[in-house]
Specification:
Blueprint: E1 3-8, H1 20-30, E2 34-39, H2 50-56, H3 76-87, E3 91-93, H4 109-117, E4 125-129, H5 131-135, H6 140-143, E5 149-151, H7 156-164, H8 169-172, E6 178-182, E7 185-188, E8 215-218, E9 221-228, E10 231-232, H9 243-249, H10 265-268, E11 270-271, H11 274-288, E12 292-295, H12 305-317, E13 323-327, H13 335-343, E14 346-354, H14 358-365, H15 371-383, E15 387-394, H16 401-414, E16 418-423, H17 431-438, H18 464-480, H19 485-491
Helix pairs in contact: 1-7, 11-12, 16-18
């Protein structure tokens, strides 16, 4: 039996139940290992108050969320050292893949977790995984030199196998998916099999989280919520998305030039059974009081219809006091999809608009999305009483200010219930990031990537000050119009 300390290096200052944590916890505990979690979320000297930041710019509705949580004055590193001294872990692990890849910190976990563990005195093996390692496994030791092993790709079973073989280094370095060091050289083992049956991971164990992490602001109220996955994988190959990194790792690199979809999507998309999902939702509701399930599936409506209908039948037969928030391609939905979403207790749908130019989305983002269908289907959702959140991106390479204004005008036309705007993030291993580096919009490796909190763009078309301006006022312009654009630019010092 091994002792594993998981670290959640979340810097957003609000509860995020990173999905890799309950997945790894469940599998490790099923094999008899001890697991504890050190969560950095509420340490004052570590975290940033993302809720306050995005409430001030009207992206979130006002709530009394801060009445439900407490921030610690203790130094996060000293607190981590105390936990290490007390628990005496054999392994410290802090980053991994799941379907939770949309920008709530999964990409930067490997960096921020390493920042913490590199300052801790411990004899534990330092092991990590995640998106950056999957994209460029051979560069891991150069960036994070104190790490003992990296895991590329999905890491649940690989980490469990490492824990099982803790006293046999020769077995560990023979495991598929493991990246290890031989002298000064990184050795990248062949990829492990993709987890084709998500039911093979035991019921995800959310008990590892402190109860305060479940509180979350949502549409003007504070609810108990978790991040959750029914599935993994996306059939689309948008050039800016980290999903393409995982696709390539597992050999799914063929896609249609007309739709941007994988040519063999059924082999890449994987989902839990409807019965398994229902059992997990029932547990979350009855044992933890969860009423909102934030489904992080990359594209909810590409989950096998039989699975979704099985779940809907179970919810109809024995309703649960829960509602779902999902993400999907709204430009691709039909009236029957909306009916299914209603049966699944979907309260809100998030969808990527990215930016208004259909030609730009197609030519530069490999995202084939009809603006007309988007507008039509947002109205369809709203008519059915399902809230719609529009996801927008600013600061893409080659984007100019007029394109941001056009995106604001598009949002004004469709009037989604909620609007988010993110700074474009150059995720290594994606085509868009490589293009941005070659055209000098970004450095080859950007450390503090966070689409909600900061831009790292060096664009000559849109400087950081201009991008921050539009992040601040995007929602205001959508709701109130652009009449005061010039006055606000002057107020913010963008024009004299």
């Amino acid at each position: 039996m091994a002792k594993i300390l998981l670290i959640n290096p979340n810097k957003w200052g609000r509860g995020i139940t990173s999905i890799w944590i309950p997945a790894h916890t469940a599998l490790l505990r099923s094999r008899g290992h001890q697991v504890q979690l050190f969560d950095c979320t509420f340490f004052k000297n570590w975290t940033v108050d993302e809720t306050a930041f995005n409430t001030s710019n009207e992206q979130y509705k006002k709530t009394d969320y801060h009445q439900f949580i407490n921030y610690s004055d203790e130094d996060v590193t000293k607190s981590l050292q105390k936990r290490v001294d007390t628990f005496q872990p054999d392994i410290i692990f802090w980053s991994a893949l799941s379907s939770h890849i949309h920008g709530e910190g999964e990409y930067v976990n490997v960096q921020y977790g390493y920042e913490l563990v590199s300052q801790v005195n411990t004899k534990a093996l330092l092991i990590t995984a995640g998106l950056q390692i999957t994209a460029r496994p051979e560069e891991g030791f150069a960036r994070f030199p104190k790490t003992n092993y990296f895991i590329a790709g999905e890491s649940e079973f690989v980490l469990a196998d490492i824990a099982d073989a803790l006293n046999s280094p020769e077995k560990i370095i023979g495991l598929k998916g493991v990246v290890w060091k031989k002298g000064e050289k990184a050795v990248v083992n062949p990829p492990q099999p993709i987890i084709s049956n998500l039911d093979s991971i035991p019921q995800y164990d959310y008990s590892v989280f402190d109860s305060s992490v479940f509180w979350r602001p949502y549409n003007g109220e504070v609810v108990k919520a978790v991040d959750y996955e029914l599935s993994r994988g996306c059939i689309y190959t948008c050039s800016y998305c980290v999903e393409t990194v995982i696709q390539r790792y597992y050999g799914f690199d063929q896609s249609s030039s007309k739709s941007g979809a994988l040519t063999e999507p059924k082999k890449y998309l994987r989902a839990k059974s409807g019965k398994r999902v229902y059992e997990e939702l029932k547990m979350l509701n009855s044992e933890l009081g969860i009423t909102l399930v934030r489904c992080q599936d990359t594209n909810f409506l590409t989950i096998n219809r039989a699975t979704l209908k099985e779940l809907a039948d179970l919810l109809d037969a024995e309703p649960l006091n829960i509602k779902l928030y999902v993400e999907t391609r709204v430009d691709r939905i039909s009236p029957s999809d909306v009916e299914l979403l209603k049966r699944l207790r979907v309260d809100g749908v998030g969808t990527g608009i990215e930016l208004s130019s259909e030609a730009f989305r197609t030519d530069f983002l490999n995202r084939f999305a009809s603006t007309d269908k988007l507008e039509e289907n947002v109205a369809l959702l709203k008519k059915a009483g399902i809230k719609c959140t529009a996801y927008n991106i600013i600061g893409l390479p080659k984007e100019n200010e007029e394109m941001i204004l056009d995106t604001i005008r598009l949002n004004r036309r469709i009037q989604p219930d909620n609007i988010t705007v993110a700074f474009y993030s150059p995720y290594i291993g994606t085509q868009q990031a490589e293009r941005g580096v070659s055209e000098k919009y970004f450095d080859d490796y950007e450390y503090h990537v966070d689409g909600q909190l900061r831009t790292v763009s060096h664009s000559s078309l849109l400087d950081a000050k201009t991008l921050n301006f539009y992040k601040k006022y995007f929602n205001r312009f959508v709701r109130q119009g652009l009449d005061d654009l010039a006055a606000l630019k002057k107020q913010e010092g963008l024009v004299s």
